[in-house]
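Course exercise 7: structure representation. Students receive a sequence record and must write out the corresponding structure in token form. The form below is the worked example handed out in class, using endopeptidase La (350 residues). Read each field label carefully; the graders check that inputs and outputs are placed in the correct fields and that the protein name is recorded exactly as given.

STUDENT ID: A-19
EXERCISE PROTEIN: endopeptidase La
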Amino acid sequence: MKKQDNIILRRIGVVLGLVLLLGCFLFWPLNSYIESPGTAADLQSFVKIKGHPDRYKGNFMLTSVAIQRAHPATYLYAKMVPYMSIESAEDVTGGQNSATFDRVQKFYMDSSINEAIAVAYKAAHQEVTRRYLGIYVLQVQPNSKFKHDIHVGDTITKVDGRHFNTAQGFQKYIAAKKVGTPLAVTYTRDGKTRTVTHPLVKIASTNKTGIGIILTNNMQVKTKIPVKVDAGQYGGPSGGLMFSLQIYQQISGKDLQKGRKIAGTGTISSDGTVGEIGGIDKKVIAAHRAGAKIFFAPYIKPTNEILKYEEGHMTNYQMAKKAGKKYAPGMKIVPVSSFDEAVKYLQSNK
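STUDENT ANSWER:
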């Protein structure tokens, strides 16, 4: 009887071992991410403008790419699905931890919304002002002497007591100094202002003198007619174009949708220029699944020099058109290089 019990226990142990191995195969996290088609969300629920509700039929849609940590099983599955891709953790997060990555993505979204508000209000001849707050810190490089004081998410407002109205102003002032020169940097974090002084370093990528950070502009936008935009859990800069169209339709009172479901993607700059983004093929699929009939894709002229650095050696429009032909039959892929082009297309096409 004891021998039989030992056999049963060994069998149970083998089964548990196999279950454990299977669990590791299914759920062990890998140092890579899987990107796949995300969602296409109705922007009407995100934008609230006092006295200017969206009364029109149709939808402007914000498209996204779904990103999830890869596991052995999902990795193999993604290898078999043409419209899914596997990216290294470094390429996706830039080496940042999850909290820092999410914080940067939220800032990108907030910044793109501010630009969208400014562009839309200006186009509708409504009062809007922009205030430059300073340099937003996206990353602190390992050789920076400020790395123990300045963190991702801080905003640099002054250097040596001087404030500039553009990032280029800050950079020009700093680049004129010699490596090793002490620089007093004033920055804000969580509403508090601090000033620290450390020597400047040489920036390897430009061979110029600098603080040792990767940066972008931090702008504040104020409008006479109150507007509130809440993007929820969405992050990144790629919703700029679609937010500007939704805001413009509401503040101007012009029906651009005309009953249509309109999706798209692209950054928006202060002059209304539409910029390229990543994962546009997946966004085309997401838009098609949500019933969109029009998809705006950023357009740049496909020169040989540009194509060398493009994802898949195709511009956004080329990639979107290819994905549309394969996965989104019946959906019109429309190239646009500016906010004005998108508005004109919607006004002149039914």
